[in-house]
Amino acid sequence: MAPSDLSAREKETVHLIWGFLRDKGLKESCHALEREQTLFFDQAYFLDLITSGDWKEADRYICRYIRVGENNDTFRAVMELRKQYFLEMLDKGDKLAAFGVLQQYLIPLVQDVQTDNRLKKAFDVLLGRMCSLLHLDSFREHPDLTAHPDTATARPDLAAYYSSTLFPKIPALADRLAPPPVPVDSLLNLLAAVQDGTHMQTTMPIPINPAAAAAPPVAAGSGPVDVQMIDTQPPPNGVIANGVAEKERGSRKRKAETEPETVDNKEKERKRHTQQPEAQADEASKDRKDVVMQEQEKEKEKQERDKRREQREKEADLAREREKTKEKEERERKKEKENEREKEREKEREKERKKEREREREGERELIEVTLKAFL
Q1: Cα–Cα distance between 86 and 132 in angstroms, integer?
Q2: Per-residue pLDDT tens for 162-195?
């Protein structure tokens, strides 16, 4: 789990565990926890690794806290370690070990400076110079390394350079240099307090609710009862028979009263149809003429509407055509103006690019000279 994923309580727990390991003298476990969680950086331990020449552990410890290619300071913090490791192997006369350091620790740094072209070019030049040192009997034969100190002096100087110059420039290290104070036996005291509290909780009696104990029992069947009173007795058979007979007599009486009226109505209707056949024929003819005239009028109105619609469509087409022509001419004028402005901007950009290339070349030359002086 990354340190940023830990809660405040979890970080406090890690601090207590770290303090316990430190108090009990378990240094390897203590520093392993530091590397794993990176909650704080043990500066004294790191500087002791430098002065004792434990370069692999020093490199592994600091790389856990920083990203090598983040900026020039983080790059230098790793490169200085590995450079001193390389020079000490040459100083011992072990060129095979020096070549192994060059191949395993220094050449991979090229991948960490890919995003910075100037630093990459300067480091490429440095690697070429370092490879050339393998062909010398002593690296102090190089004119820029004749005054390089011996191991007993170079290690304390490098440790002082880290503590006074590099650490304050790297926020990832400067913010973690001071671990929080942890009193002696804090973890043991906390565990003892937790155990005492747990014992007290398990020995306390469980309280009984007096109100629940005093509540009277509920008698069975004492709930509300839903009673429905429904009369399901059928009426007597004699009452039903009398009612049916009365309905039949009323129906026959009404039929007898309405039958003479129906006969009279049919007779009147038959006479009316026989007396007015001609009037009906004339009315039908007149209706047909009216329908024909209405159809003709509708056809004329439809033709007029079609003519007016065609005229409006022609006018709309002409208006759209004129609008398109105007828009096309306007776009052409804007395009010509934009092309002219773009040509002017391109000329300005070309001038800026030339100036930038000149500044980059000048900066590369200065950086290569400064880096070579710092390394050699």
Answers
A1: 13
A2: 989 888 888 877 766 666 666 555 666 666 666 6
Q: Which amino acid is at 193?
A: A
Residues with Cβ within 8 Å of 83's Cβ and at least 6 positions away in sequence, in order, are 106, 375
Q: Which residue matches tokens 């000279």?
A: 369
Instruction: Name all contacts of 253-260 with Cβ < 8 Å and 24+ positions apart.
Output: none
Residue 189 CA to residue 19 CA, distance in Å, equals 12
pLDDT tens-digit map of 329-345 = 999 999 999 999 999 99
b/e per residue 134-160 (b: at least 16 CB within 10 A) = eeeeebbeeeebeeeeeeeebbeebbe
Q: Which residue has the higher pLDDT, 368 or 71?
A: 71
Q: Which phi and psi angles does 283 have, rounded to 5°?
A: -65, -40
- Cα separation, 209 vs 82, in Å, equals 74
What tokens does 40 get?
């704080």
Cα 65–chain centre separation: 26
What pLDDT does residue 220 have? 42
Structure tokens at 338: 């934009």
CA distances from 373 to 125, 145, 167, 327, 370 (A): 12, 10, 22, 66, 5
Under DSSP, the state recorded for 5 is G
CB neighbour list of residue 23: distance below 8 Å, 6 or more residues apart: 184, 185
Q: Which two tokens stand for residue 352?
A: 């800026």
Nearest to 58, CA basis, from 40, 46, 73, 44? 46
Tokens of 229: 């009173």
**Degrees to nearest 5, angle at CA 282 with 276 and 285:** 140
Query: Can you tell me the distance from the alpha carbon of 47 to that of 162, in angstroms, rounded to the nearest whole number?
Result: 8
